[in-house]
Amino acid sequence: MSDARNLDQPLWTPSPERLVGSQMTAFREHANARWGLALSDYDSLHAWSVDQPEQFWTSIWHFGEVVGDPGKTVLEHGDRMPGARWFPEATLNFAQNLLRRRDGDEALVFWGEDKVKQRLTWAELYREVAHFAAALREMGIGPGDRVAAYMPNMPQTVVAMLATSSIGAIFTSASPDFGEQGVLDRFGQTEPKVLITVDGYYYNGKAVDCHDKVAAVVAGLPSLKRVVVVPYLKAEPVLTGIAHARSWGEFLKPHQQVTEIEFAQLPFDHPLYIMYSSGTTGVPKCIVHCAGGALLQHIKEHRLHTDVKPGDRVFYFTTCGWMMWNWLVSGLAVGATLLLFDGSPFVDEGDILFDYADAEGMTHFGTSAKFIDHLAKLGRRPNQTHKLDTVRAIMSTGSPLVPEGFDYVYEAIKKDVCLSSISGGTDILSCFVLGNPVLPVWRGEIQCKGLGMAIEVFDDDGKPVRGEKGELVCTKPFPAMPIGFWNDPDNAKYHAAYFERFDNIWCHGDFCEITEHGGLIIHGRSDATLNPGGVRIGTAEIYRQVEKLDEILESLVIGQDWDKDVRVVLFVKLRDGVVLDDALIQKIKQTIRANTTPRHVPAKVVAVDDIPRTRSGKIVELAVRNVVHGRPVKNVEALANPDALDFYRNRKELEQ
Asked: What is the pLDDT of residues 486-519, one digit of tens each?
C-alpha cells in the first residue's frame, strides 16, 4: 500500500447514529447522572475514570449489571501497587454472571475448520454446565482446586470453564498443539486434579490424533484424579493407556437429571484463572487472575470499548493457550453469542473466516496483525468476495498493526468499520490500550487508553513524555492486576516482573509513544528494543518498512553484540523463487533508510527458511538473539515451530 494519502484525515469516523447509540455514550451519561458530573467527551471521561477510581469502578459494576454484592468498600490501599484491594467485602460468582440467559437463542456456535459444526442455545449451555459442575462436585472438587483443559477452542472447553468457576475451582488451559513438555511445564506447576482433553483436532484439513501425547502428559501429572476425553475426530474416543480416563459422555451421564447450578458466592479476589507467560527465557510464569477483576475489566472492554450488545455475534481467532480465549468467553456476560473456531485460518486461502462472518452474521471480527499482513501479501480482497454487511468492528492484536495494515483493512475488507488495534496481555488478561466506538481511527494508531487505566509513557528517568518513545507504564492500580504468581509466596517474582524498573509503577515492557491525537503506537517489546550506538530503536519500525516489499513474506530483527557495540541484524523469509542477492539487500537497506534513519539500517541481512514464533503467533526476537550469541533457549516448548531456531545457529554471515 502506498503512503501517499491525506494523513490529516482519519481513516474512519463514527456516524452520528453510532455515536448516539454506543454504550460508551450511554455510560458517560450514566456517570454524569449518578455522580453529578458534566463529562462531555472521551478525554474527560478517561480523566475521571483514573482520578476517581472508586466512582468509576462502582459505575462499571452497576452499568454492567453485575450479579453479586459489591459491599460498602470499593478500594483499600489505593496508593499501593502491588497491594491495592478492590471491593474487599464483595461476593460474586464469575460463571453466574456469564450464564444469566437461559433461553432458546444461540449462545455458542462452533466451526472446526470446514469439518465440524456445533451449536448450543443458552438453555443447553446452562444445562451442560450444570451437569459438569455436578460431576466435579461429586469428585470432591471445590474452591481453589485446579481443573485444566488441554483443548481446542470448542464448546466443551467453555462448558468446563464455566462449571469450574461456578464451584470456585481454578481453571487453566493449553491448546492441543502444545507438545508434551510444554504442557508439563505449565500444568506440572499448577497440579490440576482434573484434565479435560480431546482425542484430536483438525489443522489445515488434516486430522491430528492426540492419543499418545495425552497419555504421556497424563503420566507426567501425578496430581490427576480424572481425565475427561472429548470426542472430536471420532464418535468414541480411544481411552486405552490413558490413566483415570472417561469419555465426556460417561463423565456427565450420572448427572443428567441436574438442572440447576449451585453458584458458590466468593470474594472479589478469589482465583479464577491461572495463565502462563509465553516467553522463552525459562519455565513459564504462572499468573493468577481473580474473578472480580476479570469480570469488571472484560465487561468494560466488551460493552464500552468494543460496543458489544446483547445478541451481537462475537468472533476472535484464538486458541485456548492464549489469553484472548479468556477475553472472548467473557462476551457471554454481555449476552452476546460467541462464534468459536478451531483450526487454520488459511483454509481455502484465508476465505474460511470471512465465510464464517457471512454465514453466521458476525458483528465483531477479531484477528491478529499477522493474519491481516498475510492476507495483504496474498493479494486477497474479501470485500470483493464476501458481503460482510453485519461486521461493525474489526480487532487486531498479537503484534503492532502497521499503518499499511490499516490501509489494507479499509481498502480490501470493509470501509465502514471500527478498526481497533488493541494491546495488553496475559499479564493483565485484558488491554491497556484499545479501540473506542466514539473516536476516529487514525492510520497506524491504537485509538485510546483504556478507561480506568492510568497509562503514561516514561522516559529513562521515569518522567512522562508525549510524542516521544518510551516505556508503557500504568501509574495507578486497577482491578485486573494479577493477584500474584503461583508458588511465589513472598511475591518476589511478581514484583520483579513489573515493579523493579519504577517504584510503585507497573512497567509493562512495551516500547511506545502517545500521539498528538491521544492514541498510541507500540514500537515493540522493550526487551527486544535495538540499541545501536546507545540509541533505542523499536523493532516494529523496521518490520513496517521491510514487510512492505513484495519479495519478503516476513522478517525478524535483533541486535547482535559486535565490536563493543550492537549492530542491527535483519533476517528475512522470502517468497518462493526469490533470491537474496546484493540487489535485493540494497533495496531493503534503501527502503529502511529512506523511511526511518540511518541507525535503523541493518548491518547484515540474512535469508532464513522460517521465523520462530510462540503458539499465539508472536515472533520471538529474544530466542533468536540467544541462539545467535550461542546462549541456550530455555523454554523451546513455548514455540509453535522450535525447529526454526536451527536456521539461525552458526550463521557464517554473522561471523564478520
From this structure: 999 999 999 999 999 999 999 999 999 999 999 9
Q: What's the Rg (C-alpha) of the chain?
A: 24
For residue 200, give the 3-state DSSP assignment: strand
Q: Which residues pair with 112 in a beta bridge?
A: 116, 342
Name the nearest CA neighbour of 167 among 188, 146, 137. Answer: 137
167-198 burial, b for 16+ CB within 10 Å, e for fewer? Answer: bbbbbbbbbbbbbbebbbbbbbbbebbbbbbb
Minimal CA–CA distance to 602: which of 626, 633, 578, 580?
580
Are 585 and 366 in contact by the 8 Å Cβ rule? The answer is no
Query: What's the CA angle centered on 529, arms 524 and 535, to 5 degrees?
Result: 125
Q: Distances in Å between the alpha carbon of 549 and those of 78, 110, 143, 404, 575?
A: 49, 37, 54, 11, 10
- The C-alpha angle 48, 52, 56, rounded to 5 degrees, equals 80
CB neighbour list of residue 646: distance below 8 Å, 6 or more residues apart: none
Q: How far apart are CA 459 and CA 306, in angstroms?
A: 31
3-state SS assignment for residue 577: coil
pLDDT at 5: 55
Question: Which helix H or strand E contains 198, and what residues bound it?
Answer: strand 194-198
Tell me the C-alpha to C-alpha distance, in Å, between residue 151 and each of 70, 108, 155, 197, 542. 34, 16, 10, 5, 36
Block residue for cell numbers 535495538? 530
Is residue 12 helix, strand or coil? strand
Place 3 in a pLDDT band, splitting at 50, 70 and 90.
very low
Task: Note if the bond before 16 is cis, omega within 30 degrees.
Answer: no
First to last CA, the chain: 36
Please check whether residue 362 is in contact with residue 353, taking contact to mean a CB–CB distance below 8 angstroms: no
Q: pLDDT (tens digit, 9 = 90+) per residue, 177-206?
A: 988 988 999 999 999 999 999 999 999 999
Q: Which residues contact 279 (CB under 8 A, 6 or more apart)?
A: 285, 622, 635, 638
Helix intervals (H) in 22-167: 23-35, 42-51, 53-63, 94-98, 122-139, 155-166
Closest of 377, 452, 454, 450 to residue 408, by C-alpha: 377
Distance CA 102, CA 92 (A): 19
The whole-angstrom separation of Cα 139 and Cα 135 is 7
pTM above 0.70, yes or no: yes
| 535-547 pLDDT tens trace | 778 888 899 899 8
Distance CA 557, CA 545 (A): 12
Judge contact between 356 and 341, C-beta under 8 A: yes
Measured CA distances, 74 to 88, 199, 255, 432 (Å)? 7, 46, 39, 21
Cell of 260: 440447576
Nearest to 554 by CA among 381, 377, 350: 377
- Between the CA atoms of 187, 192, 198 and 199, what dihedral angle is there, to the nearest 10 degrees? 80
Close Cβ partners of 71 (under 8 Å, ≥ 6 residues apart): 87, 88, 89, 90, 91
Over residues 440-468, the mean pLDDT reads 96
Map grid coordinates 547482535 to a residue: 560
Q: Which three cell numbers stand for residue 336?
A: 452476546
The number of beta carbons lying within 10 Å of the beta carbon of residue 577 is: 6
Angle 29-34-36 from CA coordinates, rounded to 5°: 85
